[in-house]
Amino acid sequence: MVDPAHVARWQARIASELWDRVVPFWMEHSLDHEHGGYLNCLDRDGRPFDTKKHVWLQGRQVWMLSKLYAERGETRFLDAARLGAEFLARHAVAADGRAFFCLARDGRPIALQRKIFSECFLVMAFAEYARASGDAAYRVRALALFERVLALVADPTPLGKPRLAGQTPSVDLAVPMILLNLVAELRGAPGSATFDDRADYDSIERDAVARVLRHFDPARGMTFETVGPRGERLDSPEGRLLNPGHVVEAGWFLAEYAARIGDRGLESTAFAMMEGALDQGWDREHGGLFYFLDAEGFSPVQLEWSQKLWWPHCEALIGTLSAWRATGESRWFERFEEIADWTFAHFPDPEYGEWFGYIDRRGEVSQRFKGGPYKGCFHVPRALWRCAGLLAPDDQPPRADR
Amino acid sequence: MVDPAHVARWQARIASELWDRVVPFWMEHSLDHEHGGYLNCLDRDGRPFDTKKHVWLQGRQVWMLSKLYAERGETRFLDAARLGAEFLARHAVAADGRAFFCLARDGRPIALQRKIFSECFLVMAFAEYARASGDAAYRVRALALFERVLALVADPTPLGKPRLAGQTPSVDLAVPMILLNLVAELRGAPGSATFDDRADYDSIERDAVARVLRHFDPARGMTFETVGPRGERLDSPEGRLLNPGHVVEAGWFLAEYAARIGDRGLESTAFAMMEGALDQGWDREHGGLFYFLDAEGFSPVQLEWSQKLWWPHCEALIGTLSAWRATGESRWFERFEEIADWTFAHFPDPEYGEWFGYIDRRGEVSQRFKGGPYKGCFHVPRALWRCAGLLAPDDQPPRADR
């Protein structure tokens, strides 16, 4: 078993990183008291380098601040969450129910993606803000958007992507994975006062789990980002694409679901997916997790394939600690430490707080900004917050330690 | 003046690279005698890693092979050009006149971009193939597509990009720059048998030149990729974006036009644009040209900003030699040599021929493939072919040497 004092040192370090170095960065620099919402494109020192507001990150920040409020009960977090929730309720959803991808500082729309993720992150935002604020109108908004997401998954025609005769039918891991997460978010914590169990959640989850598993090849320990509709392997750059951070994230979503329904077999599968992705994704030469790989060893067509991004490392911290808690196997704690050592040596900014997001293959900062079109107040604080919980002595001890 | 023997050594080296190392790679590996067209996703050794056919590259390869045929008169080049031209005529244009971005190996459509560039590269392909083959039907196809491009530039609505209230009106350098190039391609070589002067070419060119110049700030020597419709600077990542390779390419397009109409002032402006871009874009630490920069020194949001791509270096070889030929100033030849030394030290593959396309900031190969969704039989052979011509002793000598 892992030395409890050692665990406690990690817990203290991670909690301090969250509350002293990361949360203050966003609370100090991102709140837009003039127009509402958040400035999410922030340079290294917190100054905005763009005033555009990206809905993925606006929604995720509302979610995160609502969670921090639930954790600490400090009204400054609820006030900050409200700043974003009200802005998004007013500006993020078009008359036809689609959610924009990007807004101007004052809320006017700039871009609409042909994807469902803006809608998804608004579901998370509104569901959690409804819980934090007690304002049921946000719950209604969350559920309406969730219905919209389900409809777009069933029939993506309104997204406007042309269907053409030469396309190979395919499905992406991202979709069932986020549906699984959204149901968990809508449901809330089992046993809590705000737990909300809708009749159809179980079947949506079962379907999402079955769809996630189609991407996993147990024989090779590989989870493919894109497969045919029945899980067929596709021999193309898309079909060979591995996204280790995504797989680890899907793994801990799946493990959490498996634990809730008490399916130990599924839990093992989730950890096997994670383990494969960490084995394949770890750069044995320079450390850190690659962003993309090709399952057959070709060069991925994504120019940024070898970069080390903050978010796969965040997911890996959560994933390895979750596996340690669930299995009690010290090898998972060792894996956590290997990843955490590399992560803490490369991503945090000792000068201005928060983490750099983009590191080159050798470990040098490639982009100095702390917030951008795809990085905001989400992966870093979510990982630190969850890891602090998983490391806390008052949490349920690891199974093998019980 | 530059030592003619030194010039001759470069000429021999570049001609050998073209005919012995680059052209054979494509002739040997890319021709799809089964379905027509070209396999353009080729691994380091020429084996395909994907069978998709990207229309930008299919069109550019038809153009290049037609040029090689014009240069050498070898029917194998004309036959290879026909393989692509017939495939594209059959498959690349939709019933509504839009050109696809990507086709399956057998020609069925896979993707349609909300951009005009597929159409543009088909104009180049069909115009040059018509000239090479004498088949006037391809000239008709080229002109019809050119009309379509002009219509889409005037009114982009059919491209299907939503216009939203928060968008900042803006224009991209890419558009007027390619129009200038397309007119030059349609016109052909002045004095040649196939020279074709249409009544409206002059006004299209004058308009395109005026539009290109709106992106240039002479005081800072900077050419901005995206500006307001009247050339206004935009304070956003898009508005601050510098793309040095693009500016150098625009520079030699512009210089060529200026030389044709005898406008020495415009020619100087073109070289000033190029010189600024080369000064700003050169990596003083590791050598090579950056892909993207932010004019105010922020980190570009493009993850690949610091990579060294083959094509900006190709454009810089053409641009610097063109400036040397036009001005006779030896500093331009020195600049050519600095770029050529770095380029030849990093991009060519000594083992299998052709050039790597993607090098990391420090000069290591980041992606091993020779052809991909955006790299094909175009920039490398075009640059080598043009540079060999600019270095040839029977070319018009540099102005200062006359």
Describe this structure in words.
- Two copies of one chain form a homodimer.
- Chain A has 402 residues and is mainly α.
- Chain A folds into two domains: 263 residues, Alpha/alpha barrel (Glycosyltransferase), CATH 1.50.10.10; 129 residues, Glycosyltransferase (Alpha/alpha barrel).
- Helix content of chain A is 52%, strand content 8%.
- In chain A, the strands form six sheets. A three-stranded antiparallel beta sheet of chain A has the order 3-4-5.
- In chain A, a hairpin with a 5-residue loop joins strand 1 and strand 2.
- The N and C termini of chain A lie close together (11 Å).
Describe how the helices and strands are arranged.
Two copies of one chain form a homodimer.
Chain A: H1 4-29, E1 41-42, E2 48-50, E3 53-54, H2 55-72, H3 75-91, E4 102-103, E5 109-111, H4 117-133, H5 136-154, E6 171-172, H6 174-187, H7 201-213, E7 216-217, E8 222-223, E9 226-227, E10 241-242, H8 244-261, H9 264-281, E11 293-294, E12 308-309, H10 310-327, H11 330-346, E13 358-359, E14 365-367, H12 379-391
Antiparallel strand pairs in A: 1-2, 3-4, 4-5, 6-9, 7-8, 10-11, 12-13, 13-14
Helix pairs in contact in A: 1-12, 2-3, 2-4, 3-4, 4-5, 4-6, 5-6, 6-7, 6-8, 8-9, 8-10, 10-11, 10-12
